[in-house]
Amino acid sequence: MTAQDLADTLKGRLIVSCQAPPGDPMRETGTLVRLALSAVAGGGSAIRANEPEVVAAITEAVDLPVIGLWKDGDTGVYITPTVRHALAIVEAGAAVVAADATDRPRPDGSAFADLVTAVHKAGALVMADVSTLAEGVAAAAQGADFVSTTLSGYVPGTPKQTGPDLDLVTSLSAAISVPVVAEGRINTPEEAAEALARGAHSVVVGTAITAPTALTSRFVAGLARP
Predict the structure, then answer these.
(1) 130-151: per-residue pLDDT in tens?
(2) Is 113 left (phi over 0), alpha (psi -120 to 50) or beta?
(3) How many C-beta atoms lie closer than 10 Å to residue 133's C-beta?
């Protein structure tokens, strides 16, 4: 699938992130596959998934593009941090590899551009997960096929907020020609629609759809307020 083909498929559509953190009861391959199948049944247009085993299983189970990544660790650059991780996700069948494209050092000393070159050579596309406008512009210049706002609010120096960074969506959409994907803390259909209105090409929603543990804890916390 070419970048233009996928862009056409995803324009104005929902990507559902089917992931679970370490230790969560949902973190089991068969369970995550069922989440992906539920997302398909609900009208999702693509799935975002973590780790080669899960990516492979979801790719086999659903007839939608899979955006794969590999989280290794939980600090610094840990979303598909090296070329090795990226190529394992391609081998698992992902149409797109999502990877950290922030300006932080990568653990193997490589550059984001090295990962882009390797993934393209292997026949897949790249989604750059960024936290700032400058990082998004740089990622597009280095050949990323999509740029996502995934990491805004999770990298030191970026805005801490409970909702999505819609200002970053707006600025990126005005600054680069590659499709901008809104991701991160999108909690309602109204916020998803606002992201599109701000210029996002498509929208990723994870926790608000596929994370019952986190959703339960929000309700518990709400009930505990005086």
Answers:
(1) 999 999 999 999 999 999 999 9
(2) alpha
(3) 18
